[in-house]
Amino acid sequence: MTVCRDCCCGSARKHPGVDHDRQLDRLREALPAPHRVRTSQCLDVCDQSNVVVVHPAPSARRDGARPVWFGLVLDDVVADDIAAWIAAGGPGRAPLGDVLELSVISPPA
Q1: What are the pLDDT digits (tens) for 71-100?
Q2: Helix (H, G, I), strand (E, B) or coil at 96
Q3: CA distance readout (Å), 83 to 12, 71, 89, 97, 108
Q4: Cβ-contact 71, 9 below 8 angstroms
Q5: 20-78: per-residue pLDDT in tens?
Q6: Taking Cα atoms as reference points, which of 28, 23, 26 lies closest to residue 9?
């Protein structure tokens, strides 16, 4: 998983009601090894901040699964739903629930 933390994503200036550090800590706690939660500089979809990209497991990628991009990840419910989906298998391995589907965004061109 890649969590954008740059100019807009993770910004208290843009999203003052979100505890961005706590959100990142919660994701890391929910997804222990072998999962990796890393941060990235700008992913170039600032209008959808906070952005999270979930990468498929290598075996799922070989089977055709692709990363899934999520936007507006601004509360614990969405972050927890993403973590639960990853724990269940993630892209190419677990179905994406209807509610979580609402947070899916298109990656930049």
Answers
A1: 999 999 999 999 999 999 999 999 999 999
A2: coil
A3: 23, 14, 10, 12, 23
A4: no
A5: 999 999 999 999 999 999 999 999 999 999 999 999 999 999 999 999 999 999 999 99
A6: 23
Task: Report which residue type is found at 105.
Answer: I
The 3 state secondary structure assigned to 9-67 is CCCCCCCCCCCHHHHHHHHHHHCCCCCCCEEECCCCCHHHCCCEEECCCHHHHHCCCCC
CB 56 within 8 A of CB 91: yes
- State pTM to two decimals: 0.95
Q: How far apart are CA 71 and CA 47, in angstroms?
A: 9
